[in-house]
Amino acid sequence: MYVVCVTVHVKPPFVQPFLQATLDNARHTRRESGNLRFDVLAAEEDPARFMLYEAYGNKDDFTAHQQTEHYLRWKQAVAGWMAQPRQGVRYNSIFFGDGEG
Fold it and tell me: Of 57, 60, 61, 67, which residue has the fewest beta carbons closer than 10 angstroms?
């Protein structure tokens, strides 16, 4: 499993449009054959800070995701709404789920 965690700081006036665009991207991403999970998380102490937790079968599945129409649409839409560049950290899974994988 290949996991990407993306932290996004959104300019406060754009929180709602960001959420709309991000949920559209998340819903479409979940339909991709290589996507295992896509969670949209909001920081408890900062309503303009988000974490996107994405899990894919492998790195190639993530690379394919980055070429989809819905991802490219999201990327273009949210670019001007960020208070700072988004920060993505990529991980290779060691232990997940019930530990049997």
Answer: 67
pTM of the entire predicted model: 0.90
- Tracing tokens 């932290």 back to the chain, one arrives at 7
Residue 2, classed as helix, strand or coil, is: strand
Query: CA angle, corner 39, sides to 36 and 43, nearest 5?
Result: 155
Contacts for 71 with CB less than 8 Å, ≥ 6 apart: 25, 29, 65
User: What domains does the chain contain, in order, with CATH numbers?
Assistant: 2-92 (3.30.70.100)
Geometric angle at alpha carbon 22, from 17 and 25, rounded to 5°: 130
Beta strands in 1-101 (DSSP E): 2-9, 35-42, 49-56, 87-92
